[in-house]
Amino acid sequence: MENSNTSPIQNLEQATLIRLSPDDNVLIAIRNLAAGTEINIDGTTHILTTTVGLGHKIAAQPIEAKEKIIKCHISIGSATQPIQTGEHIHLHNMKSDYLPTYDRGDKRDDNAGDQTS
């Protein structure tokens, strides 16, 4: 595992992000990060514009719209818009290529798969 602030992780108390696989284009927050937090990605400082929760993704490099989001060496979805290095990646700018993506504002039919009627 690689940390964006020190590589390899040498001081876990100072670590904020990890790259789970060398091929990943996302980093994972290993603690809650407030908006305004400075993060270092490949030697460049970025300032978070939004709060990023524990376990959430941050772009490790620029990602174009429709480009695959790679985590753990596996595509987990696609960007729905261009994403800049250091930007939070979540439902507002990516979608699953495998399952419907819902957010709290979406209406869904929980019985859509029910074949009993």
Q: What characteristic shape results from the CA principal axes?
A: globular
**CATH fold description:** Archaeosine Trna-guanine Transglycosylase, Chain: A, domain 4
Uncertain regions spanning at least 5 consecutive residues: 1-9, 110-117
Give the biggest sheet: 5 strands, antiparallel
What is the structural class?
mainly beta
- Order of strands side by side in the largest beta sheet? 1-2-3-6-9
Using the coordinates above, name the CATH class: Mainly Beta
One letter per element, helices H and strands E, the order comes to EEEEEEEEEE
Number of strands: 10
Strand percentage? 25-35%
Q: What is the rounded distance between the termini?
A: 49 Å
Q: What is the CATH architecture term?
A: Roll
Number of domains: 1
Number of helices: 0
Overall helicity: under 10%
- The gyration radius over C-alpha positions equals 16 Å
Residue-averaged pLDDT, rounded?
83
